[in-house]
């Protein structure tokens, strides 16, 4: 079984490119996923300039790649479900470099709108909800619970 679920923040805006000949969109971004540390351990690591998060490269294909590139920005909180993919290549000096990426099957946008107000996501009026096919704001009075 090869299944990964991550929640983290983008370290920079996604990069979008298209595969030559096929035109298939592919987007890449890095997700900062906090390590599960006690408050004391986290402060100790920060004092030593050691990372308190893992930085994981995410690869997204197809329509979702374009959606990610259009609507995600640095600092935005997202959930990613996918699989681990490993590989290798020879760098310009002939040294073997090993890679580990997460190939996303699903990317959930956990924040919308103004990133300065991280706790609220989008407001109840839906004014910060982007125009994405299949997504539309609902009135809270329509929720049956």
UniProtKB/TrEMBL annotation:
GO terms for cellular component: nucleoid. Pfam families: SSB. One of its GO terms (biological process) is DNA replication. One of its GO terms (molecular function) is single-stranded DNA binding. InterPro entries: NA-bd_OB-fold (IPR012340), Primosome_PriB/ssb (IPR000424), ssDNA-bd (IPR011344). NCBIfam families: ssb. This is Single-stranded DNA-binding protein. It comes from Wansuia hejianensis.
């Amino acid at each position: 079984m090869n299944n990964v679920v991550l929640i983290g923040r983008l370290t920079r805006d996604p990069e979008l490119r298209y595969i030559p000949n096929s035109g298939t969109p592919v987007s890449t971004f890095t997700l900062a996923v906090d390590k599960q540390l006690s408050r004391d351990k986290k402060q100790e690591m920060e004092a030593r300039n050691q990372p308190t998060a893992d930085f994981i490269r995410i690869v997204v294909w197809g329509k979702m790649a374009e959606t990610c590139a259009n609507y995600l920005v640095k600092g935005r909180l997202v959930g990613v479900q996918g699989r681990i993919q490993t590989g290798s290549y020879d760098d310009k000096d002939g040294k073997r470099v090993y890679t580990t990426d997460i190939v996303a099957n699903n990317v959930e946008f956990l924040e919308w709108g103004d990133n300065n107000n991280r706790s609220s996501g989008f407001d109840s009026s839906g004014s910060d909800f982007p125009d994405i096919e299949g997504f539309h704001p609902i009135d809270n009075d329509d929720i049956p619970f």
